[in-house]
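Tip: read the tokens left to right.
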């Protein structure tokens, strides 16, 4: 959940930084950062949510999180801008939802 939240903060912070300060944001908008972040999110989701789904035998957390990761992956195919941010924030929200469902089912 921390990584998903950090991703959402990154997306919003970059938009605010570029809009308010007029900076190019070249480093923060580098596609490599997004690709690496998605790869890390996928690995953590596979272990945390996939493992939890196998333990408590509920597919919903896994399905919700994978939908979120799909949105995040789809955002990589879009040019930087509002559409990319919307896809990413929807994806991050779904991944957070998957983590919350996973925690609820594990108790």
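Filled-in amino acids:
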């Amino acid at each position: 959940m921390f990584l998903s939240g950090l991703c959402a903060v990154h997306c919003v912070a970059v938009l605010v930084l570029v809009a308010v300060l007029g900076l190019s944001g070249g480093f923060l908008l580098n596609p490599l950062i997004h690709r690496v972040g998605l790869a890390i999110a996928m690995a953590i989701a596979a272990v945390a949510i996939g493992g939890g789904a196998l333990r408590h035998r509920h597919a919903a957390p896994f399905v919700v999180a994978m939908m979120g990761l799909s949105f995040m992956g789809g955002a990589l195919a879009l040019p930087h801008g509002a559409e990319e941010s919307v896809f990413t924030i929807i994806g991050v929200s779904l991944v957070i939802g998957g983590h919350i469902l996973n925690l609820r089912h594990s108790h």
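The mean pLDDT is 82. The radius of gyration is 15 Å.
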